[in-house]
Write a structure and sequence with these properties.
Keywords: Membrane, Symport, Transmembrane, Transmembrane helix, Transport. This protein is an all-alpha fold. The protein has a single domain, classed as Hydantoin permease (Orthogonal Bundle), CATH 1.10.4160. It is 77% helix and 1% strand. A two-stranded antiparallel sheet has the order 1-2. The protein is globular and about 60 Å long. The protein starts with 8 loop residues before the first helix and ends with a helix. The protein binds phenylalanine (PHE) and sodium ion. Sodium ion (NA) binds next to helix 2.
């Protein structure tokens, strides 16, 4: 079968932004900002996005478009008969692992949409999370529903599946965010939240701030696992990579920052803790919704937002694995989607159990969901990012990547990109990665 292409630049930008904008923006960014002291974290994060994120984003898009292949095929075609294809294989493995627990968290969010409707929000919302995880059928059901939606989109293909769904969902996503912000900043007492969010407290800086900022930059831009290589492989030669990458980076950053504007003012308005960690959106925020006027409605649209963001990302993870099987092994797309999607559903069961009150399922002293998250964010994505930048910088050659990225672009990248990609990105990310591993062990 002929390999598909996005039918327009907008299609690609929306799909890649959809991949980037996800739980990373709505769930992870706010809680990591919260635990790292607010505004000061944001400054360091923005530097990480610009100096580490953008060069890798451009490199992955260029690798994909140049080869028109899945990640394994892309490395194989630029460096035949070498072991570099293993970088692509690591990406396929990351897709498997990350999607499996991503879907569990997305499933929590989905169940909250319906809980907003059926529960008496005014009295018992804060207890929802504990009641949710005290049952097994509920989390498994929603994890299954979410994986099924992901599979259905990917099974339908690039134009009729991914491109169609992002064109519908991304505008809804932006609309919801604005409604939430208006609600949040008009609450009495919200100013304290704005100060926490906008006024940097330099005493809150630590090494952790840097490691968290860099790993958040990878996760949020979908880097280091081939998702952007794969989406780039469906981009036509007529479109500009530099410009598309700049749009994706801008949209992703905007949504993360806006999510903070929707969350922190409301959290402070009700005197709750901004540093509550992963529970910020699932425990703290619902407690906020119970107390605010029209809480049911805002709770409903918030969790709809979370689900939409998650779905447009999860499809990009599944696409990495499916594209590999379709390109390299001539599998039928539908068959690959259903089979791999089902396997990923199963791989998600241990982290799901890890959060259930039925078991104390743990590994390396961490809850299994946190273990999966730790391996993905501290090992897989940085390793993928380091090796991709070394490959593009030194093996394929930064001048080739620059040529690909500058094609039909109104602005050009050159020596700064080259310098960042060849030396600064790999060195900085390696240093941070080794330090994190050392710290954990
Ligand atoms: N970027 C997505 C988010 O912010 C997560 C993701 C990671 C998607 C890796 C694809 C690949 O939620
Ligand atoms: Na993101």
């Amino acid at each position: 079968m002929e390999r598909e292409n996005w039918t327009s630049r907008l299609g690609f930008i929306l799909a890649a932004s959809g991949s980037a904008i996800g739980l990373g923006n709505i769930w992870r960014f706010p809680f990591v900002t919260g635990t790292n002291g607010g505004a000061i974290f944001i400054l360091i994060y923005l530097a990480a996005i610009l100096f580490i994120g953008y060069p890798i984003l451009v490199s992955e898009m260029s690798l994909g478009r140049k080869t028109a292949k899945n990640p394994i095929g892309a490395f194989k075609s630029l460096a035949p008969n070498t072991s570099w294809y293993l970088v692509g294989a690591l990406g396929v493995l990351s897709g498997f692992v990350i999607l499996s627990y991503y879907s569990v968290v997305a499933g929590w969010g989905m169940s909250y949409i319906f809980k907003s409707l059926t529960f008496n929000v005014d009295s018992n919302f804060p207890q929802i999370f504990s009641s949710h995880i005290s049952s097994l059928t509920e989390p498994i059901l929603w994890h299954g529903v979410f994986m099924f939606l992901t599979i259905a989109v990917i099974g339908a293909g690039i134009v009729n599946g991914i491109q169609k769904i992002v064109k519908i969902l991304m505008p809804i996503l932006f609309g919801i965010i604005f409604l939430l912000i208006i609600r949040s900043v008009t609450l009495e007492g919200s100013a304290a939240g704005l100060i926490f969010y906008l006024k940097p407290d330099f005493s809150a800086i630590s090494f952790q701030t840097f490691t968290d900022a860099i790993s958040q930059a990878f996760f949020t831009l979908s880097l280091g696992m081939g998702a952007i290589i794969t989406y780039g492989s469906y981009l036509s030669d007529k479109e500009s990579i530099n410009e598309s990458a700049a749009y994706v980076l801008a949209f992703d950053t905007a949504v993360a920052l806006l999510a903070g504007f929707a969350i922190f003012p409301a959290v402070f308005a009700f005197g709750l803790d901004p540093a509550s960690g992963p529970g910020l959106t699932f425990i703290t925020l619902p407690a906020v919704f119970t107390q605010m006027p029209f809480g049911t409605f805002f709770s409903l649209i918030f969790f709809l937002l979370l689900t939409i963001a998650a779905l447009t990302s999860s499809i990009s993870m599944l696409e990495v694995v499916v594209a590999f099987l379709v390109d390299e092994h001539n599998w039928n797309r539908k068959k690959a989607s259903y089979l791999i999607g089902f396997l990923i559903f199963l791989v998600g069961i241990p982290p799901l159990l890890g959060y259930s009150s039925f078991s104390n399922f743990s590994f390396l002293g961490m809850n299994v969901l946190d273990t999966y998250d730790w391996f993905s964010n501290s090992i897989f994505l940085p390793t993928g990012g380091i090796l991709t930048s070394i490959f593009v910088g030194h093996i394929w050659g930064s001048s080739n990547a620059i040529k690909e990225a500058n094609k039909n672009s109104r602005f050009h990248i050159g020596s700064i990109y080259s310098l960042l990609l060849k030396y600064i990105v790999p060195a900085a990310v390696l240093f941070i990665m080794l330090f994190t591993i050392y710290q954990t062990i």
